[in-house]
Amino acid sequence: MDSMTHTNNFQSVYIHVPFCRHRCGYCDFTLVAGRDDLIPRYLAALEREMQAHDQPLVVQTVFFGGGTPTHLPIVELEQLLKMVTRRFPLADGGEFSIEANPLDMTEEVIDVLHSAGCNRVSLGVQSFQNKHLQTLERDHQGGEIPEIVQRIRARIPNVSLDLIFGVPGQTLVDWEYDLEQALACGPTHLSTYGLTFEEGTAFTTRKRRGQLTEIDEALEREMYALAIKRLQEEGFEHYELSNFARPGYQCQHNLAYWNGSPYAAFGPGAASYLQGTRRTNTRSVLGYLSRMEQGASVIAEAETLEKEHAMREALYVGLRRLSGMDYAEFQHRFGIDLQEFAAETIQRLVRQGLLAADEKRIRLTSEGIFLANRVMAEFL
Question: Which UniProt keywords apply (predicted)?
Answer without folding.
Answer: 4Fe-4S, Chaperone, Cytoplasm, Heme, Iron, Iron-sulfur, Metal-binding, Oxidoreductase, S-adenosyl-L-methionine
